[in-house]
Amino acid sequence: MIATLALGATLAGCVSSPGRDVVKVRLDTGAGPLVLALDAERAPITTCNFLRYVQAGRYAGGSFFRTVVAETNDNPNPIDVIQAATSAGSDDPGLGPIPLERTINTGLRHSAGAISMARDGPNTATSSFFIVVKDTPALDFGGARNPDGQGFAAFGSVLSGMEIVQAIHAAPATDEQLAHPVVIGAATLAGPRPAVCDQ
């Protein structure tokens, strides 16, 4: 999903290893609550960027606006994801672009439930993010979903509410745009802010 998604990991592979601090964010959406577990240890830049938007209230009033379904996707490397943005939309320049944390370096993967950042070229991600519905290695470093082969920055996974993600993914859409975008009422950090974000 590039900024419009031209276009990870399972929880076990992403954020629940022994001794790893799990950063939790709750998204209250019109379809129900989602709890995300973010990996500030392996993907600190992307996690801390996401938390900047959460703590600034920038996702409140935003929405899940896009669904990409592999069966109807004419890209040679189809994907199954839903994409969200702030109320300013997927091209919101927000707080500025961040460096791309490649999966080859983080060890995270775009498995079902992974949360990752939408982008255009490398080092262009800002605020728009997506959730992977089915395992999609084409989104990892070296994958062919993006022509540059750099992949996308997975930085956590869905801890609870995957059934809501699947329902949004299956909702009616035209040209990948949801007929009824699912509004994000609030995004809340559940627990302390990771120390790495204050360095």
What does this entry look like structurally?
This protein has 199 residues and is α+β, with helices and mostly antiparallel strands. The chain has a single domain, classed as Beta Barrel (Cyclophilin). It has four helices and nine strands, in the order αββαββαβββαββ. It has helices at residues 11-14, 44-55, 103-106, 162-169, and strands at residues 23-29, 32-38, 63-68, 81-85, 114-117, 129-132, 154-160, 173-174, 177-190. Strands 1-2-7-5-6-4-3-9 form an eight-stranded antiparallel β-barrel. A hairpin with a 2-residue loop joins strand 1 (23-29) and strand 2 (32-38). Mean pLDDT is 89; it is low at 1-19.
Reconstruct the topology from this structure.
Layout: H1 11-14, E1 23-29, E2 32-38, H2 44-55, E3 63-68, E4 81-85, H3 103-106, E5 114-117, E6 129-132, E7 154-160, H4 162-169, E8 173-174, E9 177-190
Antiparallel strand pairs: 1-2, 1-9, 2-7, 3-4, 3-9, 4-6, 5-6, 5-7, 8-9
* Share in helix: 10-25%
Largest sheet composition: 8 strands, antiparallel, barrel
Order of helices and strands: HEEHEEHEEEHEE
What's the Cα radius of gyration? 15 Å
Portion of residues in beta strands equals 25-35%
Q: Between the first and last Cα atoms, what is the distance in angstroms?
A: 30 Å
CATH class category: Mainly Beta
Q: Uncertain segments of ≥5 residues (pLDDT<50)? A: 1-19
Structural class by SSE content: alpha+beta
**What's the average pLDDT?**
89
- CATH topology heading: Cyclophilin
Strand line-up in the sheet with most strands:
1-2-7-5-6-4-3-9
Strands, total number? 9
CATH architecture designation: Beta Barrel
Shape: globular
Number of domains: 1
Going by CATH, what is the homologous superfamily? Answer: Cyclophilin-like
Count of helical stretches: 4
